[in-house]
Amino acid sequence: MTANDSRPTRVGSNTQLVGAGHNPFDFHGFVNPPTVRASTVLFPDAGTMEAHGQKYTYGTRGTPTTDALCTAINELEGAAGTILLPSGLAAVTVTFLAYLAAGDHALIVDSVYGNVRRFCDTVLTRFGIEVEYYDPSLGAEIETLFKPNTRLVHLEAPGSNTFEMQDIPAIAAVAHRHDAVVTMDNTWATPLYFRPLDFGVDVSIQASTKYPAGHADILMGTASANARRWRRLKHVHGELGICGAPDDAYQVLRGLRTMGVRLERHQKSALAIAEWLEARDDVARILYPALPSFPDHDIWKRDFKGASGVLSFVLAVAPGRDFKVRAQGFLNGLSLFGLGYSWGGFQSLALHVDLDDRRVLRAPNEGPVIRLHIGLEDIDDLKADLARGFDAAG
């Protein structure tokens, strides 16, 4: 990169990640942008202060550090604007609050992240918003669920824990005919493997906690809107005052530079583990869209450029055996896989999935669902560790 930022306009994804959001010559040639921590911002005179006539006015409205991350995410998402939030959950909830009001009806996919469901069932209903959950397999048929007051449709693809795909263009087309906002949690794929706004989604949401940060040490979320929906999202974000911190933004920017090569490794290892699990008699089913045997594989192959490192499998359990006992036996037999929430970091993780909150979908009945995040360890070591888990469960 030169002082006049003469980068080519069309580059590969890893090249884009290296330079996105920051020109070193805007900051005296330093490769990384400085971390600007701020609450108060001074104005040169009273007139400028009254008119808010300068780029930065107060810390909650952005700093050069948070702007650098927003600019990078805009570039990756193809968005008109991005807001930063202190967690992925906050990115979803603030987006809902931006577009929903008392008396509105919202359609939420039944495979949604569990904490989002709890927000919908408590906060949104308390605000007088009607929430209805729909089957992720609905494409254009979702139109039968629309009401005159339907204002928002929320997607998550693949779905949390069970990885159902959705026909995103078909759903978006229906929603837009009814003038409803389409939001999507795209944390699993990141904009490297799927760009929601290119497929009709209005607001693309990521938990930057996961792959963008990549090191299990940061909480942050982003919501990126197209030109039509950006102004409303920006204003509500400012009115709520829920903002991402500059230090966290710096860490996410640093992680973003290596996200492409990390995702390549996560994908390669996850596919190898999925194929290995599929061949085992003690596994009833693999839930991973990149596998040709997965029911929604064709939709994934049509729309997505890649797969990340998160998958689930159904542990085969003989009739009469307790699902929880078998799942805990498997987990307790692991040593390389950590037992913990979240994913996207360098270490592999495992947990027993609770699907009791589903309203429309049915949980697999062959056994407990175990979710795995495949990290950056060597594949043979991970296979050996999983084999120890199966032995402990058996």
From TrEMBL:
InterPro entries associated with the record: Cys/Met-Metab_PyrdxlP-dep_enz, Cys_b_lyase_bac, PyrdxlP-dep_Trfase, PyrdxlP-dep_Trfase_major, PyrdxlP-dep_Trfase_small
SUPFAM superfamilies, alphabetized: PLP-dependent transferases (SSF53383)
Origin superkingdom: Bacteria
Necessary cofactors: pyridoxal 5'-phosphate
Gene Ontology MF term list: cysteine-S-conjugate beta-lyase activity; pyridoxal phosphate binding
Protein EC: 4.4.1.8
Modification N6-(pyridoxal phosphate)lysine occurs at: 210
Pfam families: Cys_Met_Meta_PP
Catalytic activity: L,L-cystathionine + H2O = L-homocysteine + pyruvate + NH4(+)
Transmembrane portions of the chain: none
One BP term from GO: transsulfuration
Keyword entries, A-Z: Lyase, Pyridoxal phosphate
Top-level EC class as recorded in UniProt: lyase
NCBIfam families assigned: cysta_beta_ly_B, PRK05967.1
Family, similarity comment: Belongs to the trans-sulfuration enzymes family.
Name listed for the protein in its UniProt record: Cystathionine beta-lyase
Source organism of the structure: Microvirga tunisiensis
Lineage, opening ranks: Bacteria, Pseudomonadati, Pseudomonadota, Alphaproteobacteria, Hyphomicrobiales
